Every structure is written in structure tokens, then in C-alpha cells.
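Exam prep: given the inputs below (a chain plus fe (ii) ion), describe the expected output before reading on.
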Amino acid sequence: MKKNLLMYLALLTAGCSSSQSDFQSPQEIKRLAFGSCCKPRNYPQNMFSAIEKRQPDLFLMLGDNIYGDTEDMNLLKEKYQELAETPGFASLRRSCPLLAIWDDHDYGVNDGGRHYPKKQQSERIFLDFFEPGQQSPRSRRPGLYTSHLYGPVGRRIQIIVLDCRYFRDELPKTEWDHTKDYVGWYEATMNPELTLLGERQWQWLDRQLSVPADVRIIVSSIQVLAHEKGMENWGHYPHERQRLFGLLKKHQVRNTLALSGDVHFAEISKKNIGAYPFYDFTSSGLTHTSKSWPLAKNHYRVGKAVDQLNAGIIDIDWQARRFILRIIDKDSQDAEVHEIPFDELQFSKSEPSP
Ligand SMILES: [Fe+2]
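Solution:
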């Protein structure tokens, strides 16, 4: 009788929640690490041990995790095998859980989107590498978006991982006229029909933002805020970026940050969405960086750009209720530090914190 009552209460509770994360764990997360853009052969691999020294609870790989750039799926597998055989990566993978998403080069084509003909095969190879033997929800649907929820009530962190490749429409290209400020070749589209995430992923994201959580991290392989340098970013789909901001506002999110990669240097950007200061923490360059791309304009940048090999660390200080964002270098030293109290990250400053 008592067992039946408990099951009923569990079902009732489940029914009250409009959605669930794909993966749930009671493990408390105090430190996240993330990085992107990795060439496993003939490039310095120090960043993996630099990250491991910081003993993160979870490591996020934000894409360009290998440089496949091919429709030859055997070659793509070989590139993943090179990563597997990189001692620093193998050691880091043993030391903490790993959650990954792809960007263009590991997807299979530079700046690629939904027209890449091998996307289903590439997705299978990605899942076999990062989630061997698992039947995760994302392995049963097109695209690699997913969400993980960690920690006990009061210290729950939801990590929402977006797929910016599988459903993405092509962007218009501009004339190749590079200046110090303009290092890419894209301009914003005015066509509201063009999508970055695709409708199915948008609907999923809307539901995910209703999952109860104390802290949320939104992972995007490409930059969400910085939009002036002509490289791929959300600002080139202004209607899609506005839709993201609208969803954050609709759900009155708290303590929510974005993470991104792709650009071969590190920076922290901030843009106010109404009263909410939204941060996009970019780390790119696990094995190679650019000295010139950080010189391009980004009027959302706070602090300095870091053009040496780097990874991102996010310390979640649950007691003092703040984030500490760190860009670390190959020696595991802080190259940039930025603190954000949770109290700042509210749409309505008058509301009490949860
Ligand atoms: Fe990329």
C-alpha cells in the first residue's frame, strides 16, 4: 500500500514537471572546465594536463574537437582515434566526466550546416566516440543537442548543449575584404526563414528552460554575443538570437551563462537583455590560436582577449552564490578572471533569490 502511494506521488511529481533533462545525476558540480579547437597531431597538447591540474568535476568539449573536414568517414574515424591516443586527453577523460558537442570541422565541413551530406554518419561516429555503448536520448533523434542536470535541490546545475550545425541554414557571404576589424566573411541575414537551431530544437529548448534548476549553462559551439568580426556567430541570424533572448526572458532565467568556442582565442562578452546581464564566455584554442583575430572588434567584451593556448574554468561558489570565470593558460595559470555574483543574474532585481 505504502509502495503504491510512493509510486503515485512520484508520477504526480513527474507530471508536474513539463520536461526533463536527458541525463540526471545527484553529483554536485563545483568546477566546470571547457575548451574547443583541438588538432591532436603535430600541435602542442599541454592544455589537457593544464585542465586536469584544476580537477574539474566535468569537462565540456565545445567543438572542432578534431579537424575532420571530410566526407570520408574512415578518415573521420582516424581523426577521432588520434584524439583518443593523445595522452593528455586520455588522462583527462579518465579523471572526470566528459560532455561534448561538435562544431563545423568535426561535423565534417568548414562552416557547414544542414546540407552536409554525411551528417547522419558523422553523428554516429561522434556518438560512438564520446558515448560508446550508451543509448542516450540524443542518440535516438537527429542532431546532437542534449541537456544534463547535476546536483541536489538548491545546487542544481543544468547544462543545455545546443547543436549549431545539423539544422543550420547557409549564411550569405560578403566580399573577401579583410581588415583588422573584419576577419570573417559573413554578414547578418535579413531573411527570417533562415534558421540556426531548427524548429524542433527550438521547441526542445523552450521545454528545457522550464526544468527546475538553480544555475544554467547554455553551450553553443559558436559565439552568441560577439558579432562584429564576420565569423560565424548568432548575430548573423538576428531573429534567432532575438528568439533566444526572448526565451530567456519568458522563463525569467536566473544564474544563466552561455559558453562558446570556435574563434581561436578567449574572451568574455556581456550584453544586457533588459535588466539581465547575459554573459557569453568563449574559450577556443586547446592546441592552436590566432594572434590577429582577437584584434577584431567586439564591443561586448569585458576584460581582455587571451590569444595564447587556453581553456575556460567556471567555479560555482554555491556558498557565496557567485560564478568565478577563469581563462587558464598552458601552465594552468589564470590569464583572466571575472567574478559574477548570482544576485546580478536576475531579470527582476527586486525578486528574492531562490
Ligand atoms: Fe568552428
